[in-house]
Amino acid sequence: MKNRVSYFTEGHLRKLMTLLFVSVLVLTVNPDFVRGNTMNPTWTYVTDRAVREIGMPEDGSFVIVGTSTSEDGMLYKFNSNGNMEWNYHLPSRLDSMSISPDGNYIVAGTKGGLHILDEEGNLIRKVIPPSIAGSPENTFHAVTISPLGNYVATECNGVIILYDTNGSLLWAYSDIVGYVSSEGIGFSKDEKYLAVGFYDLGVYLFNIHGELLWKFTKLPQNIRVVTFVSDNYIAVGTSTSDYSSGSVYLFDINGNIIWKYTTDGGVSSISTSQDGNYIVASTGKSGVGMIYLFTKEGKLIWAYNTGNPVNRVLVSNNGSYIISVGGSGVYRFNRQGDVLSSYRTGSALFKIAASRDLNVAVFGGLYKLYFVNFSNESAPAVLKIETSPSGSEVYLNGKYLGTAPLNISLQPGTYTLKITKNGYSDYVSSITLASGETKIISATLNRNTGYLSVNSSPSGAKVYLDGRYIGTTPLESYMLPPGEYTLKIVADNHETYSRNVSIEEGKKVTIRANLTPLQPAILQSKTSAIQITTATHSTTNITSPIKETSTPVTPTATTPSYTMYVFGLLALFVVGALTIAKSKGKPVVPMTSSTSTKSPLNSTSIAKEETNSQRAPRPDSYTLQKIPHFPQELLNKYEPLELLGEGGFARVYKVKRRNDGKIVALKIPRMDEKTSKNFIKEVSAWLHLNHPNIVRLHDTDILPVPYLEMEFVEGVEVGGKLVRDLGVYPKPMDEKTARELIKGIARGLAHAHSKGIYHRDLKPQNVLLKADLTPKITDWGLSKLETSSSSISVIGYTPLYAAPEHLMPSKYGHTDHRTDIWQLGVTFYELLTGKLPFEGYTHEEIFGKIIDEEYRFTPPSRIDPKLAKYDEIFEKLLAKRKEKRYGSIAEFLADLRRLDEIEAKKENLEREILELKKTLVKSVEDLKKSRNVEETVKHKQLVVETLGKLAIAYAELNKKAELLNTLSDLKFYTIHNLSDLMNAIESVEMMVRENLPVGDEFIERLKVLVHRIRRENEAGGTGNRRV
Predict the structure, then answer these.
(1) Strand 450-457 to strand 508-514: parallel, antiparallel, or no bridges (unpaired)?
(2) Hey, which of 472-481, 946-955, 975-984 has the most confident mean pLDDT?
């Protein structure tokens, strides 16, 4: 036997793909296009066996369906109304099937037989494998009827065989031994040539007489599809074993490559138009699923991402229509790439057959058929929606469709279109769509605003909204989204004016404030008179109870006299003297604040305190000693309870609000005058964030001192100690805890990103922890305000968590939402491994590693093999170039969900292993008790099958010791594959020695090897090249 190679049978390949697709095909859907069912199946049919093949003649007059179990199969014929006309029982498992273009012949390839039937279901002939193909029990694969219905080509045990449609053997070619996929054989349209793609060997061209004309063996990937574009050109589709990458090639009849196109994912199917002008290809990559339409010259006309692997694709005779089936259901396109209609079944579709013009088609899932007659349907309309701004939400008849831009395929009719976006007025329109019409809606949304005008006396006062500086008075028609705002007007030597303002859409609010000059202490207080005008239909005047006046005040019982001033001053002097005497000899506690040099305690501040209707008691010396450095300017508002922490940038206190007794956290930043000016601007966005995984910012101001009033987060007890933030939480932590924490942090980031707010300094220290371990992100917008302080923070970010764009924007661009994704990745890496991906003894060393594109962090699997599953995720999280990172937090969370599903699958594998072990023990005992050859063969086959399943399960669970033992047991059940088995054992031994995980590529090769050993035993164990 020559060139022994690894190969699958098509049956096992399908089983493998079924397991893979059922678990991943329906996970994601491209959000930019069709949603819902716009096809109407004429009829459906539920089968009692798995659907293996579907066929239909070119005129679409009937359907042939092949179903199978592991033991036998069935063929069914349905007419176009869904009535079953006949069925035919196959005594062994169905592997492949083909129907002639005119419908006169149906050929089914099974284990041990090639069944040739006529249109009425009568058996013309059953052919067994010829002796050159080995055992008569071998299976016919890749059965293909020629375009004119004169020949049947197939592969059996690596031998290419050509029959006529009466079952007469014309020739067999046995110099090549390799596996051919179900779409790996193609005839030229004039039936002069036969092209074959051997899975891992190459492309071979024969003439119709069986002479090998040429072979091309230099393709780097496995060959999935071979088909003729015309009599002189051959299209070939290739793929890696996991469909992660692939290519489409066009060969001429002499074996020269005319053009090549690299696809996003491995090629799963190719179809060509009857005139040879168009080539359509699909890919089966998980989470992608592309469809490409090319001209025969290799020009890409369009590409479409269905969001899930595509299993089959067909193009009509003139290239006008394309149909695909896969994990996202059925799509029907026109030549321009518009989605004309779609159908979702809730599960993946694997098979498709259609008339040559694609007017009728039948789709197959695992156990269900769907027949569609497109000629009975009105031609769908296409609605294309573009909006300014983009990203607006689109609703049709009240149903949410996604965010613009959108292409939507719809049945003709009248619809109510609504487009919304936060901060903008809704766009609402009634749209009528005619059959086959393509309508483009370009909607410009108007800002959803009201207006605010502010005047003050004196003018030139600074105006703040929700702590954000917006200008000086007079301020005219300042545009704002509708909502409630806190307005503050600040002028030197005047009392700060503050009140709430309500802004309504399309209305103007005018505020006129007479600011009260600051007076010496003990003088009577005055309040401002204000007027609020709504510039629509009416004016509302709101005036304070006591209006400012310059009229002299005559002393009365309610007005202080000069004598009272004197007594007041004497009383203050006496109280001060007593206080000094009482505190004599005691240490003096410094009372400092970030603005103490700018605003010392003087008569002005005393006056402000004395006129406050809610006077706060002065703290005694014990309170001041217990809570040092708390700003006395805030004592009238907060009762300090505890100093929570202190860093180079700020102190954080646990305080109680005096007005309602609520416990909150108060951060007092240290900043100079220049930084103070930017304080409100930088943190104002935080006020708009309200999410369970974000620390709530209740209030902020720069007066009387800069402060932030935040939600108090209590911390979690770990090992008898209170841990308040993720920075001091013990690491590494178990996977489940790390995943749950990072999911919470990610959800908080996603909420902020949805509002266009980015953190840019995410690190474990900025993640606070609740008692139930809920993470809450804090310090939004503070990175630009922080000053250098030891190694904690430098120039607006933390070195150990800095992204490349932080350090070298000239090369990596500016920071954006993907900067948060990088820092999320660094944090996640640290939680899982207890280490940082980029470490060093100096900042310079760390910076150098971060900005060096060639420097790679240590994959988590090298630190702990159990973390191998995260290697690919961190490649996306920590890509040096932003463009190669996850495009959004949602993408990252989707990968974590897939990991969760994999974990669930592993739990199922563990349960399966327990059952397989029981089966193995019983099978070995039965084998020992066998009384004749038939029983021996039967029990031996069961032992081999069980050992093979165990080996694959152990490999997928990365249980190398158990895998090694199982492979060693398999040595006693193979002769032909012993060499490959020994190589596999050596590979596992090396993995054990080097502490390496079992990789996906090894698992795929192991599946092939196990399958070959099982087939070897099915045929008696020796003397067969392929069994």
Answers:
(1) parallel
(2) 946-955
Is residue 849 within 8 A of residue 855, CB to CB? The reply is yes
At residue 1020 the predicted structure's pLDDT band, cuts being 50, 70 and 90, is low
Closest CA to 955 of 970, 939, 940, 973: 970
Quick one: CATH architecture of 384-444? Answer: Sandwich (2.60)
Which pair of tokens denotes residue 901?
């599903």
Burial of residue 929 (number of CB atoms within 10 Å: 0-12, 13-18, 19+): exposed
721 vs 942: CA distance, rounded Å: 57
As given in the structure block, the two tokens for residue 1024 are 């067969």
Query: From CA 135, how far away is CA 153, in angstroms rounded?
Result: 19
CATH architecture of 713-867+876-894: Orthogonal Bundle (1.10)
- Domain 10-377, CATH number (from 3.40.640.10, 1.10.10.1800, 2.130.10.10, 2.40.50.140): 2.130.10.10
Q: Note if 264 is an active site residue.
A: no
Task: Render pLDDT for 903-945 as a digit per residue (tens, 0 to 9).
Answer: 888 888 889 999 999 988 888 888 888 888 888 888 889 999 9
The sign one gets for the Cα dihedral 906, 907, 908, 910 is: positive
Number of helices (H) and strands (E) in the chain: give both, helices first.
17, 57
| Residue 389, preceding peptide bond in cis (omega within 30° of 0) | yes
pLDDT digits (tens, 9 = 90+) for 572-593: 444 444 444 444 343 333 333 3
Domains of the chain by residue range: 10-377, 384-444, 450-517+529-539, 713-867+876-894, 898-1018
Neighbour count for residue 690 (Cβ, 10 Å): 10
Run of H or E residues at 194: strand 193-198
The helix, strand and coil proportions of the chain, stated in percent and rounded to the nearest 5, come to 25, 35, 40
Q: What is the pLDDT of residues 320-355, one digit of tens each?
A: 899 999 887 899 998 888 888 888 877 778 899 999
Give the active site residue among 95, 338, 701, 761: 761
CATH of domain 450-517+529-539: 2.60.40.1120
